[in-house]
């Protein structure tokens, strides 16, 4: 099954990649034979978009997961072949209930079973036609490196807070495994591209196996409606930052429109990583958390997944379940059952649970012979030495406890490590008085939810157990505070699984809680679990994904960057790159020119250590100032003394210092203030407050200007600095509420300055100066690079409709870099600005030379 793909997996190509557009008809869902998908049109990726966002109910959702929600069985009779059926236990299948019956769902994923290459086309055809599933066939060796290698040796341990401190603990980083991970994600991307209609479809990617998939998809379709949900924990920044490919994974996830997490802790860790490693900050707006990433808002969703209520209830209704409950009732008659259900892996804390139960029997001899711990150990999903060690330790501990406390007809611990049918597990839930989950780290863990629902029971099961169906039900939970479901189970007894004594005490507390209390806790849990099921979770996620994508059609997108550093910049449709030839041509044919330049990030080379302008910049300014057709102003946040020294040789240059508070029309003129400020007594109020925060925030400094005070926390800890900045902002706004000043936050700064001071004043003064000279500008160039320069752009834009400019004036408001701005044009960097200004200066020199020769 062939699709157009990138020529280099790790480069993603450097130029324009071929794109799929969308024509009048819907794209065929999949290519089921070898060949290349035909193009529907030749439009560039940037044109992808429809007239208006559509409702979820009218859309198709492509769900992408590591494995398809299918079971496969190879036929033994005849010519072999395969039989497929839905895997009712798969979350990807269960979430369909939340999407509505009129939503078409396509699944993309791999199969657990290895399919012979000669059968893959037939299997793909069958799965598409029967199940609407698109299989990604991954070569066994590549899959082993991808899944058992990078996913299970690197990502999974790290996301569960295990550092590879030695080869035995996860192993050292292996770049070949990373390349396999990228390659498999690329295969998945190709499969999605075969079936997608990018205008209409929503794509929902699941879990850590496919974290770079958003980059491949966003590279091909800039306006793709793309959500990602992480089902594992996301570690703290101190853990995550040890990953050698940390930036690549973060940037890949930020190519999604919506990123989902089970708990706020996981989301908080992700946001902290984005802030500390990428410098990307987040904001909360009307209850929604969003990251501003190159003009796009990447939304964050926090909602734990739920269980499939109907599936559980249907299994509870089975005769087999009733029979198993009766069997277990007789087996454990006269005993209280504590139940643990866990995978056999190092993070589920089975051994800690066993040690706590052993401690319970030691400290409470009266529980011996009466309390049984049934531990169901599901087969491990991974493999390796650590799994074998867990199995060995578990069996050893169980044997020791049983040998110590065993009595005739009583085994303290019943270990079940063989696979159970689902109905058998349900039966154990039903007869257990308390469920114990002591995982040391787990993304979500739905065992407590299943337990609560099963304890609600039904009439047949109540009859089997001899219970009154109309009586309130009861259940008890002891859960680790390190699992994702813990925050939502407020009636559970939360424990630190590493504290063996505390877990033993929690077990005892769960057994002696009053019946009425057990009923209240059960009722509270059941109400939450039954209303927040998997359908609710899926519907809520897709609803937020639609909201996150509603502005796609109104933005103009560019793809920039190489490899996995690729990202999409969303900008205003009228925003475009400034053509040097175009502006030089306009410059030559105009006679009255206004030129307004920001100094700090525009005239200074960003790669330079020195903050002073170099000789080339000074020469350009002198050339522009010598031209009698020009009036040139320079605006800066720096103080007037520094600017006077830097630009002393530019005699005709107008300079504005401290963001427009001080202004000098030329070298001969005196400095004047643009805003009348009677005095600066407010500094005596603000400065002590800033000093307090400087003393308590390592790395922060105070910059004192004549007109302003600036608290800078650029070199402080990003999280602590940001937290302190918010506190300082509130503090200053409170103490200066009645003073004629404004308190503003900027990029790593909090600034206090007199009201009305901004660079817009400089733009206004430039236009006034030209009007006083009898010059009505027919050419305006305004260049800036940061938020403070937006005031200049706003004044220039407003002047275009007024009498300050010639009716035929050519206006060029230009920012540095592609980012959201009130400017109409951009140039990539300060080097681009420098080349453009050199072109203008050269044009002026030519005209001056021509005038001199004529004279």
Automatic annotation (TrEMBL):
GO terms for molecular function: alpha,alpha-trehalose-phosphate synthase (UDP-forming) activity; trehalose-phosphatase activity. It comes from the Eukaryota. Its EC number is 2.4.1.15. The keyword Ubl conjugation does not apply. InterPro entries: Glyco_trans_20, HAD-like_sf, HAD-SF_hydro_IIB, HAD_sf, Trehalose_PPase. One of its GO terms (biological process) is trehalose biosynthetic process. It catalyses: D-glucose 6-phosphate + UDP-alpha-D-glucose = alpha,alpha-trehalose 6-phosphate + UDP + H(+). Keywords: Glycosyltransferase, Phosphoprotein, Transferase. One of its GO terms (cellular component) is cytosol. The keyword Phosphoprotein applies. In the N-terminal section; belongs to the glycosyltransferase 20 family. NCBIfam families: HAD-SF-IIB, T6PP. This is alpha,alpha-trehalose-phosphate synthase (UDP-forming). It comes from Actinidia chinensis var. chinensis.
């Amino acid at each position: 099954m062939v699709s157009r793909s990138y020529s280099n997996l790790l480069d993603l190509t450097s130029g324009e990649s071929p794109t799929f557009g969308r024509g009048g008809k819907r794209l065929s869902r999949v290519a089921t034979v070898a060949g290349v998908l035909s193009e529907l049109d030749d439009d560039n990726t940037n044109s992808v978009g429809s007239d208006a966002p559509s409702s979820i109910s009218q859309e198709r959702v492509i769900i992408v997961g590591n494995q398809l929600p299918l079971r496969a069985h190879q036929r033994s009779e005849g010519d072999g072949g395969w039989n497929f059926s839905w895997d009712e236990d798969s979350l990807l299948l269960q979430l369909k209930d939340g999407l509505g019956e009129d939503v078409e769902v396509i699944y993309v994923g791999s199969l657990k079973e290895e399919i012979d290459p000669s059968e893959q086309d037939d299997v793909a055809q069958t799965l598409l036609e029967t199940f609407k599933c698109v299989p990604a066939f991954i070569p066994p060796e590549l899959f082993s490196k991808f899944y058992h290698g990078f996913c299970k040796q690197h990502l999974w341990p790290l996301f569960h807070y295990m550092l590879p401190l030695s080869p035995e603990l996860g192993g050292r980083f292996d770049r070949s495994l990373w390349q396999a991970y990228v390659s498999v994600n690329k295969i998945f991307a190709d499969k999605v591209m075969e079936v997608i209609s990018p205008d209409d479809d929503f794509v929902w990617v699941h879990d850590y196996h496919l974290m770079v998939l958003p980059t491949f998809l966003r590279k091909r379709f800039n306006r793709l409606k793309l959500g990602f949900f992480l089902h594992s924990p996301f570690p703290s920044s101190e853990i995550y930052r040890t990953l050698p490919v940390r930036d690549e994974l973060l940037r890949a996830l930020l190519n999604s429109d919506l990123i989902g997490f089970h708990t706020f802790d996981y989301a908080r860790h992700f946001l902290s990583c984005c802030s500390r490693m990428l410098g990307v900050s987040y904001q909360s707006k009307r209850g929604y958390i969003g990251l501003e990433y190159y003009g796009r808002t990447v939304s964050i969703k926090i909602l734990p997944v739920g269980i499939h209520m109907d599936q559980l209830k249907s299994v509870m209704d089975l005769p087999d379940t009733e029979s198993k409950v009766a069997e277990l009732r007789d087996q454990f008659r006269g005993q209280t059952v504590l139940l643990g259900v866990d995978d056999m892996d190092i993070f589920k804390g089975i051994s800690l649970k066993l040690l706590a139960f052993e401690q319970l029997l030691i400290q409470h001899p009266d529980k011996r012979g009466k309390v049984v711990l049934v531990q169901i150990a599901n087969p491990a999903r991974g493999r390796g030495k650590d799994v074998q060690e867990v199995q060995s330790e578990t069996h050893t501990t169980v044997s020791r406890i049983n040998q110590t406390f065993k009595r005739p007809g009583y085994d303290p611990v019943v270990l079940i490590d063989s696979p159970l049918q689902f109905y058998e597990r349900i039966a154990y839930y039903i007869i257990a008085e308390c469920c114990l989950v002591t995982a040391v780290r787990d993304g979500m863990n739905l065992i407590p939810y299943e337990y609560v629902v099963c304890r609600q029971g039904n009439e047949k099961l109540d009859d089997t157990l001899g219970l009154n169906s109309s009586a309130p039900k009861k259940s008890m939970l002891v859960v680790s505070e390190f699992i994702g479901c813990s925050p939502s189970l407020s009636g559970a007894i939360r424990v630190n699984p590493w504290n063996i004594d505390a877990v033993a005490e929690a077990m005892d507390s769960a057994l002696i809680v009053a019946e009425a209390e057990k009923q209240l806790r059960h009722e509270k849990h059941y109400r939450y679990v039954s209303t927040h099921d998997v359908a609710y979770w899926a519907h809520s996620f897709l609803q937020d994904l639609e909201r996150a994508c509603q502005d796609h059609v109104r933005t103009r997108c560019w793809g920039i960057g190489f490899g996995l550093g690729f990202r999409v910049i969303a900008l205003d449709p009228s925003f475009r790159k400034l053509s040097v030839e175009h502006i030089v041509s306009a410059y030559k044919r105009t006679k009255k020119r206004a030129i307004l330049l920001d100094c700090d990030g525009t005239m200074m080379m960003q790669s330079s250590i020195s903050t002073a302008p170099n000789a080339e910049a000074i020469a350009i300014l002198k050339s522009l100032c010598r031209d009698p057709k020009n009036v040139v102003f320079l605006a800066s946040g720096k103080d007037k003394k520094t600017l006077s020294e830097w630009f002393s040789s530019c005699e005709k240059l107008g300079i504005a210092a401290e963001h427009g508070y001080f202004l000098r029309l030329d070298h001969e003129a005196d400095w004047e203030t643009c805003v009348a400020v009677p005095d600066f007594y407010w500094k005596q109020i603000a400065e002590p407050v800033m000093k307090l925060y400087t003393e308590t925030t390592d790395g922060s400094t105070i910059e004192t200007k004549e007109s302003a005070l600036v608290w800078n926390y650029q070199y402080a800890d990003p999280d602590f600095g940001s937290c302190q900045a918010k506190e300082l902002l509130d503090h200053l706004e409170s103490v200066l509420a009645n003073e004629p000043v404004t308190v503003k936050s900027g990029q790593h700064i909090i600034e206090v300055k007199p009201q009305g001071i901004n660079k817009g004043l400089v733009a206004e003064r430039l236009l006034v100066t030209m009007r006083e000279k009898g010059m009505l500008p027919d050419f305006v160039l305004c260049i800036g690079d940061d938020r403070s320069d937006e005031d200049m752009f706003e004044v220039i834009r407003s002047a275009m409709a007024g009498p300050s400019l010639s009716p035929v004036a050519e206006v060029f408001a230009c920012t540095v870099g592609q980012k959201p701005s009130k400017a109409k044009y951009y140039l990539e960097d300060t080097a681009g600005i420098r080349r453009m200004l050199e072109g203008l200066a050269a044009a002026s020199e030519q005209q001056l030379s021509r005038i001199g020769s004529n004279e």
